Amino acid sequence: MRVLLTGAAGFIGSAVARELTGAGHEVVPVDLMLPQAHGAVEPPPGVHRLDVRDAAEWVALLSGVDVVCHQAAVVGAGVTVADLPAYAGHNDLGTAVLLAAMHEAGVDRLVLASSMVVYGEGRYRCPDHGGQPAAPRAVAALEAGDFEVACPVCSGPLEWVLVEESARLDPRSSYAASKVAQEHYASAWVRQAPASTVALRYHNVYGPGMPRDTPYSGVAAIFRSSLERGEAPRVFEDGGQARDFVHVADVAAANVAALHSVLDGPVGRFDAYNVCSGSPVTILDVARRLAEATGTGVDPVVTGDFRSGDVRHVVASPRRATEELGFTAATGPADGLAELATAPLRG
């Protein structure tokens, strides 16, 4: 198949490109090379330096393309409110312009890089009152060191359960709002074009080649960079936040499975899938695993600090991706985090 790949020079995009070309597919790579993701570097050979917000101007690149794999986005939780226009511009507007260009070019299949952040908090249950919605945590409670999500009926701590794709969408950051918008634009395009989309809700992606410590980096890269400097990783809250960390090679494999699925499936389809390892870990456990693997003898520091927009627990169910896409992660956090401790990073 011939795949137009946006964000092709990025951490995930480059892994997808390698997976596709290794399987004998033709890739048309596009990347804007945003400085916060790439630094001040030129695009790799063969990569078209283009902005998805200008897709109407480069629609000719879509000629002969079977499917678009849309990885390009401004990522991270958002450092300040001033980041809002960047998320809305690159992620929301960029996706809308790309979809319009695809329609003009007659390309009606899309694989969209989404994120677990669309869920906000994960799913919870109370031992006494069953499934319960998770309201945003009160700042006063966080300041007092009470980090768990409380049951709205009895005020006791809720237990996390696996998040299915049918869970309500409840974005709690500017980045999350932009990823929900991308899914909504794609869903509307599917009905109007008509066309088909598979959205992949990535959980915490990590692995060789991920960006070093920046305000927009993932927590694994931040911990790794601290250890490289001989500093203790600083863990927010009490470190008990539950997450799913999925290796970038598995994310690339999930994209290839999704590309085949959307090409083989019917027109008018919009389906979303969790992309995760299926092996939950806590943030403190991630810091400890990385520290142990470096052999530095540096122990993580649990700070009790918090960010009011952060969610407590979000852990995915891999069931639907396994059953419908045939995707199962090959690398668990024990092996993957040990590899990350000494793997080359970007920038």
Number of strands: 16
- Low-confidence regions: none
| SSE topology string | EHEHEEHEEEHEHEEHEEEHEEHEHH
Count helical runs: 10
Strand content is 15-25%
Radius of gyration: 20 Å
Q: Residue-averaged pLDDT, rounded? A: 94
Distance between the termini: 32 Å
Quaternary structure state of the chains depicted: single chain
Query: Quick one: biggest sheet?
Result: 7 strands, parallel
Structural class: alpha/beta
The helix content is 25-40%
Written account of the structure:
There is one protein chain. The protein has 347 residues and is of the alpha/beta class. Helices cover 33% and strands 18% of the residues. The chain contains ten helices and 16 strands. It has helices spanning 11-22, 35-38, 84-105, 139-143, 174-192, 219-228, 248-264, 283-294, 319-325, 333-340; strands at 2-6, 26-31, 48-49, 67-70, 109-115, 123-126, 130-132, 159-161, 196-202, 204-206, 234-235, 242-243, 245-247, 270-275, 281-282, 301-302. A seven-stranded parallel β-sheet has the order 3-2-1-4-5-9-14, with helices on both faces. Strands 7-6-8 form a three-stranded antiparallel β-sheet, with no helix packed on it. Helix 1 links the parallel strand 1 and strand 2 (26-31). Helix 1 packs across helix 7, helix 6 (219-228) runs parallel beside helix 8 and helix 8 (283-294) crosses helix 10. The two termini are 32 Å apart. The mean pLDDT is 94.
